[in-house]
Amino acid sequence: MDTDFREIINKRVVLFDGGMGSMLIAAGLGEGEIPEQWNLERPDRIIAIHAAYLQAGAEVIQTNTFGATGLKLGASAAGKKLDPAGVNEAAARLVREALEGEGAEDRFVAGDMGPCGELFSPMGRLTPAMARDTFREQARALERGGVDLFLIETMYDLREAVEALRAVREVSDKPAVVELTFDLKSRGYFTLVGDTPRKAAAVLEAEGADMIGANCTLTSDKMIGLVSEFRDNTGLPLLFQPNAGHPEMENGRAVYRQPPGDFAGDTARMIEAGANAVGGCCGTDPRFIRAIRDYLDGRK
11 has which bridge partners? Predict the structure, then answer.
C-alpha cells in the first residue's frame, strides 16, 4: 500500500466496513464454532464477506481476528487447538486476497485486535505484562500477514487498550487506531470500568495513537453525542462504529432491526459532529456500508 493512511484521515472521511459476526452466522457459522477458525477451515467464505464489503464501498477491511489473541483462544477447548500466529497471519492474507480479487488494491487492511477476555485485578487475573505479551504475539503475526494498520477495538478497559497499543508500537510503525466501547449513563458516557471519553482521549493521545474513537454497545443515535464529547477533548482523527439498533432475540439469535437508511442518517450527523471515519459494528452488514457510501458520494 503506497497511500499513507495517516494523510488520508486528515483530508477526508474514510469508510470502514461493518460487522463480521452476523455475516459469519449468515454464512453458516455454527454454535460453539470459533469465528477465527474459519480463517483456516473456510477461507472462501471469509474472502466472500470481505468482498461484499468492498463492493459496498468500504475503504478499510478488518481482519477476522477479533478474538485471536492467545489468551482468548486458549479459553476454549477448540481454541487451544489453534495456533494464534497462524490464525492471524492467515486472516491478513485473506483480506489481501479479497482486495486483489475485487481490483481494490488501493484500499486498506486493518489488523483487528479485540479484548483478550481477561479482567485486570482485582476483578480478574490479568496483568499488564500478560496483556502486552498476548497482544504483541497477535500484532507481530498480523504484521507478518501484511496489514496496513492496526485496529484495537471494543476495549472496555483503557488499561487493556494501552497495553495493546504499546504492543503494536513494539512490533510496527504502521498506523494504530484505538476504539473503546462506552455506554450512556445518566451522568454521561462511561466504559464498563468507568473510563470517560475525556480520560481516554488524553491517555491515548499521549500514548501515540493515530486515531481514536468508539464502537459497539451504543446505537447510532446515541453515539452522536459521544462523537461531540471526543471532539471537544482531542484534535486526533476520530472513528466511530455503532451497532444497528438494540438486538432482539429471535429463535435464540440476536436480530437487529434498524434500517440502513436510518443508520446512515445518524452517521451523517456523526460526521457533522467531527468524525473523520465511520463504519458499522454489531448487526450491520454491506447494506449499511452501501448506505453510508451513497451519502458520502452525494456529499462530495
Answer: none
Model confidence pLDDT, tens digit, residues 156-202: 999 999 999 999 999 999 999 999 999 999 999 999 999 999 999 99
178 phi and psi angles, rounded to 5 deg: -130, 125
Q: Is the pTM of this model over 0.90?
A: yes
Q: Which residue has the cell 500514548?
A: 207
Q: Which residues pair with 145 in a beta bridge?
A: none
Is the residue at 159 inside a domain? yes
What CATH number does residue 284 fall under? 3.20.20.330
Query: What one-character DSSP code corresponds to residue 149?
Result: E
CA distances from 185 to 55, 191, 215, 226, 250 (A): 37, 10, 16, 12, 27
Q: Domain limits at 168?
A: 15-299
170 within domain boundaries: yes
Task: Give the single-character DSSP code of 126.
Answer: B
Quote the DSSP letter at residue 228.
Answer: H
Q: How far is CA 5 from CA 175, 190, 213, in A?
A: 7, 29, 16
Sign of CA dihedral 247, 249, 251, 257: negative
